[in-house]
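Give me C-alpha cells for this 108-residue protein.
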Amino acid sequence: MRHRIEGQEFYLIVCHSCGISFLIPDKHDDSLRESHETFWCPTGHDMSYTHKTEEEKLRKQLRETKKYAAAECVAKTEAYKRAYAAERSNAALKGHLTRIKRAKGERP
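Here you go.
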C-alpha cells in the first residue's frame, strides 16, 4: 500500500515472519521488485520479492513469441522447398513420360 508523507511516496510492507509494518521509499520498493534482492524488516527478518514483474513477464512472452515466429518461418520455408521440389519432380516425370510415348510412336 502506498502512502504520501510530506510530499514523498512510501510503500507499506508487513513482515511475513513477525508481522511488523514499516515504510520504505517508493523508488526503493520499485528497485527491490525489479532486482529481487533480499531486504530486511526492522527486526532482522529477510524478505524479497520473488514474483516476476509485469515487465519481466512481457519480455518473456515477447521472447517466446519471437521464437515461435522464427520456427513458423522455418517450417513455411521448408514446406515451400518441398512443394517446389515436388513440382519440379512432377515436371521431370511428365517430360520423361512424353519421351517414352514419342519413342513408342504415340502422340503425347
